[in-house]
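User: Could you go from structure to sequence for me? I need the amino acid at each position, not a summary. Structure tokens:
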């Protein structure tokens, strides 16, 4: 995504600066007091102040702005790329300080993080990873201001940092800025370093007697509380979770071959900014994204020891010590120029790739390998002895981390869970109407509950099916163990979002109540003769059963088949799919829905290759082209489940997380699971083979 220096739309720094300020304004939001009933385009809504997106679903603002919400609830209003105003509910997850002072103004750092309570697509600013704090110079600020008529306006202006104001909070001195047109409501807006093209501070207050006010450096977020208990997952440490998501977002955006919009790294490069003497902005974005897929350092002390071993000591007086991998890289920006500076950055990466972990995920090994690959590629032009040293270190790391070989476990068919099967088929002569059948399977016996062959409109299905489905659920559910709802359809209906249905009288989507999976009628190779035999002369049915047994014996392994570095690629032909390991769970990242002929063909290809378990995500018009987060998390979901038998419950937990507003689950919005055991016993009176 890097435009050439001698061509394209950007010819000088002024053009790049205009693009930069546009990126800043696009990510700047309004904070309102929570409450239903107001139009985000209208003049009201209890406007409190400004904020800005720092990571997907995360807004940074001032504590005194967010603290005016009701019960730590606020509304966030932002504008889409089409200029539409969108209001999203948010919750204040952290504030510095946590409590409103009894008297006087809010002391520094006066920062708060607001989490959106539902997933939406939006842009994010680039936040500096440096530890040097704000220095004198020219900056840019943005925010929403009360225009006097009750209708906020979005403004942006240049300003100057002229000094500091010590309010008595040790190490949290505010920065004094000189600026005109700094209006009420702009508190919480971003302060941007124009030379480097990165957000370095947050507007805190407006002076009452002069043109200007104060700001606070974003590095103060490092003072967010450290978890008291051992960190076992990324969401356990809010600071790491937010900035890991930030760095993955920018790497994903910059590396995506399908997204032609300007990125922060592009703008920084055009500004002539550098990520220290060793890296270009593009290299930094890529590297930070890779570091953000690793578990964080075990502790700040451990990170400081690592930096000390590289010859660096954190000496920034009054600035919080580095806490994450990105912060350590920021310390290295002061490295000496030339090959030595790059070598130290690469040694830092090697230390991160081989460091002790607070926890290990299934994707951790992939993240380590990706970082090693980046190191070796970047070191290609450096001294031969240094490259030889890297090769030896990687070999040692591989030997150290290699797991002991274990024999494949004997296949064990898992016990059949309680299932409610909903059979749906679109009528060929009335494609907007569906025939249906509900079957309860509390054990191994099929108990017909209800059926209808007169055709039901799609919008009528939840109401018509409420009674038979609830009856079947009562027959199959155990306390704390709801039955799986299995939706049996042809491939063309797999994007039917039955998990989003809300049955009358409940109000919760079915996918939040219980596991909801899809199943396609199994092709009949004996009749069609189209599927041949496998290696060793196994029949289709034998291969299908062997795959099912292996992914349930475990460990299962995810394989994204239709996406390579953000580009849609064809799913391998059936013969190649048959050659994949039996423990493989195929994943489709670029499935386009029932109108996507290629996607439907690829789904059928998986079925005819004998796969009974697969994951994909349904299409979304607003979904960004980048998809690295989905790839990373789907590996953790599938590989972390060990056995495919746990996948229905894992997908159920993800859907509950999205409903509850847990940002670590937002990547799974629209996810679907194909889960169809071989040789199903449920009758299919009107279903045809795909």
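Assistant: Here is the amino acid at each position, in order:
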């Amino acid at each position: 995504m890097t435009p050439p220096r001698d061509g394209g739309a950007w010819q000088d720094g002024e053009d790049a600066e205009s693009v930069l300020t546009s990126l800043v304004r696009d990510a700047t939001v309004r904070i309102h007091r929570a409450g239903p009933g107001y139009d985000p385009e209208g003049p009201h809504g209890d406007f409190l102040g400004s904020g800005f997106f720092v990571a997907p679903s995360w807004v940074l603002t001032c504590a005194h702005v967010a603290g005016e919400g009701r019960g730590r609830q606020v509304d966030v209003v932002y504008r889409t790329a089409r200029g539409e105003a969108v209001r999203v509910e948010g919750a204040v997850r952290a504030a510095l300080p946590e409590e409103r002072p009894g008297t006087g103004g809010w002391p520094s750092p006066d920062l708060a993080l607001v989490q959106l309570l539902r997933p939406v697509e939006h842009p994010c600013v680039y936040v500096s990873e440096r530890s040097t704090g704000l220095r004198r110079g020219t900056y840019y600020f943005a925010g929403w201001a009360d225009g006097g008529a009750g209708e906020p306006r979005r403004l942006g202006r240049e300003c100057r940092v002229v000094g500091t104001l010590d309010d008595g909070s040790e190490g949290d001195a505010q920065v004094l800025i000189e600026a005109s047109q700094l209006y009420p409501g702009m508190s919480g807006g971003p302060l941007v370093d124009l030379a480097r093209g990165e957000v370095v501070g947050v507007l805190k207050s407006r002076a009452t007697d002069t043109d200007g006010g104060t700001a606070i450096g974003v590095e103060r977020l490092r003072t967010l509380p450290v978890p008291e208990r051992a960190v076992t997952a990324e969401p356990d440490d809010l600071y790491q979770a937010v900035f890991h998501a930030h760095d993955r977002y920018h790497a994903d955006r910059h590396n995506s071959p399908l997204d032609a919009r300007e990125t922060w790294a592009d703008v920084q490069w055009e500004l002539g900014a550098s990520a220290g003497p060793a890296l270009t902005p593009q290299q930094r974005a890529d590297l930070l994204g890779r570091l953000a897929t690793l578990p964080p350092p075990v502790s700040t002390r451990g990170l400081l020891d690592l930096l000390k071993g590289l010859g660096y000591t954190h000496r920034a007086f009054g600035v919080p010590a580095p806490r994450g991998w990105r912060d350590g890289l920021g310390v290295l920006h002061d490295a000496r120029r030339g090959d030595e500076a790059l070598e130290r950055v690469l040694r830092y990466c090697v230390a991160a790739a081989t460091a002790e972990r607070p926890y290990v995920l299934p994707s951790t090994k992939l993240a380590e390998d990706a970082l090693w690959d980046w190191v070796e590629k970047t070191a290609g032009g450096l001294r031969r002895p240094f490259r030889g040293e890297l090769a030896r270190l990687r070999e040692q790391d591989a030997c150290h981390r290699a797991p002991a070989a274990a024999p494949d476990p004997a296949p064990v068919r898992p016990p059949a869970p309680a299932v409610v099967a909903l059979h749906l088929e679109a009528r060929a002569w009335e494609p907007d109407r569906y025939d249906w059948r509900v079957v309860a399977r509390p054990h191994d016996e099929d108990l017909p509950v209800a059926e209808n062959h007169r055709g039901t409109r799609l919008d009528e299905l939840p109401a018509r099916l409420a009674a038979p489905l609830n009856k079947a659920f009562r027959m199959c559910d155990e306390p704390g163990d709801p039955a799986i709802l299995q939706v049996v359809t042809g491939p063309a209906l797999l994007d039917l979002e039955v998990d989003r249905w809300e049955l009358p009288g409940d109000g919760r989507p079915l996918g939040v109540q219980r596991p909801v999976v899809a199943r396609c009628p199994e092709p009949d190779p004996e009749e069609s003769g189209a599927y041949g035999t496998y290696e060793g002369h196994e029949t289709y049915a034998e291969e299908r059963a062997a795959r099912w047994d292996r992914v349930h014996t475990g460990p299962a392994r995810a394989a994204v088949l239709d996406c390579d570095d953000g580009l849609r690629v064809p799913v391998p032909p059936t013969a190649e799919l048959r050659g994949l390991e039996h423990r493989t769970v195929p994943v489709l990242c670029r499935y386009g829905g029932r109108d996507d002929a290629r996607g439907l063909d690829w789904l059928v290809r998986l079925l005819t290759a004998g796969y009974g378990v697969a994951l994909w995500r349904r299409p979304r018009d607003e979904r960004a082209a980048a998809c690295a987060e989905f790839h990373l998390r789907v590996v953790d979901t599938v590989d972390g489940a060990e056995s495919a038998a746990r996948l229905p419950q894992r997908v159920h937990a993800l859907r509950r997380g999205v409903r509850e507003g847990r940002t670590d689950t937002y990547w799974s919005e629209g996810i679907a699971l194909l889960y169809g055991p071989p040789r199903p016993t449920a009758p299919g009176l009107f279903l045809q083979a795909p």
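One structural detail worth keeping in mind: The CA atoms of residues 563 and 569 lie 5 Å apart.
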